[in-house]
Design a protein that fits this description.
NUP210-like, signal, disordered C terminus, Big_2, Immunoglobulin-like, single chain, Invasin/intimin_cell_adhesion, 4-stranded mixed β-sheet, mainly beta, BIG2 domain-containing protein, about 325 residues
Length: about 325
């Protein structure tokens, strides 16, 4: 059958469907085809105050080498359809959307259009996360997390395409699985069948080589007292990475090559542990009278978090 003959046949068949009382008769007229189908055979749209003309796309499965596809609705006052398979809800009720190929194959989808109840607004589909933070570890170079659509119950809405604006930072697969590649930022977008473009801001950081001290705050109440700090580096066998220890104020507190801090005089100092690749962590040390102002190291830690000028000046002096 040549192209012109197939075109004429399709229009004859579409005329038969239009003359039928309802497009539900389409399968009986043409018969279902194993090679041509719609991805969904039922769809629900909801008319709301914010979305008086809800839309969704119908997509075909099976073979795709058709010259054209004719789309039609059994009840355009309830739901209309354009040449791209985009369905628009117009009033409450039911309609059947039928797609016919130039070969005479057909498939149909039942569309139910509802009006939003006056008591509660319908929730639109959304991603379960609008921001996502992934951290690369030395033992997990490509952490991942799956994004999913929510608020889709009964709506037959799904994400038909996932995209990353910067795949070098993080990729996303067809199921919404986001996988970190290197530090940076990207935006993952899910295109939904109701026409929404849903986005998630993804940030990827790396903890590989990060230095962490066992304490961030230390109180030494008497001159001459000692306490050992330990540093771990986020690499394989990180406890054996050589660390350089530095005191910002050796007149108050010194630190030896093993991380042992010794109180020298009343005051404040900052002890820093530095790795060979330049990563570091620090501990604030208060000695003698400076330490006596705090009952516990937790009290000191809480004060150091406060955004008051006294603390800001103190931290600048320790830096």
């Amino acid at each position: 059958m040549n192209k012109i003959t197939r075109l004429a046949a399709a229009f004859v068949l579409s005329g038969l469907l239009l003359a039928a009382p309802a497009a539900q008769a389409a399968p009986a007229l043409l018969g279902a085809s194993a090679n041509f189908e719609l991805e969904v055979n039922e769809m629900e749209l909801e008319i709301t105050a914010d979305d008086p003309r809800p839309k969704a796309y119908l997509y075909t499965g099976g073979q795709s080498d058709y010259y054209f596809i004719v789309w039609m609705s059994s009840n355009p006052t309830v739901a209309s359809v354009d040449g791209d398979g985009r369905v628009t809800g117009r009033s409450a009720g039911e309609a059947t959307i039928t797609a016919i190929t130039d070969r005479g194959e057909c498939a149909a989808c039942k569309v139910t259009v509802r009006k939003e109840s006056g008591d509660a607004a319908s929730k639109k589909p959304a991603l379960d996360h609008t921001t996502l933070n992934l951290v690369i570890q030395y033992n997990n170079a490509h952490p991942s997390q799956k994004l999913q659509l929510i608020n889709t119950s009964g709506s037959f809405v799904y994400a038909y395409q996932w995209m990353s604006s910067n795949p070098e930072v993080a990729t996303v697969d067809p199921e919404g699985l986001v996988t970190a590649q290197k530090p940076g930022t990207t935006t993952v977008t899910a295109l939904a069948t109701n026409g929404q473009a849903l986005r998630c801001a993804v940030t990827v950081n790396s903890d590989v080589g990060k230095v962490t001290l066992n304490k961030r705050d230390l109180l030494l109440r008497t001159v001459g007292s000692k306490e050992a700090l330990t540093a771990s580096v986020a690499v394989e066998d990180g406890t054996n990475v050589p660390i350089t220890w530095v005191s910002s104020n050796p007149g108050v507190a010194t630190v030896d090559a093993s991380g042992v801090v010794t109180a020298v005089a009343d005051g404040e100092a900052k002890i820093t542990a530095l790795s060979p690749d330049g990563r570091f962590d620090s501990c604030s040390v208060f000695v003698g009278l400076a330490a006596d102002k705090y009952d516990t190291e937790e009290d000191l830690a809480e004060e150091l978090k406060l955004p008051d000028p006294y603390v800001a000046v103190r931290m600048n002096r320790l830096s």
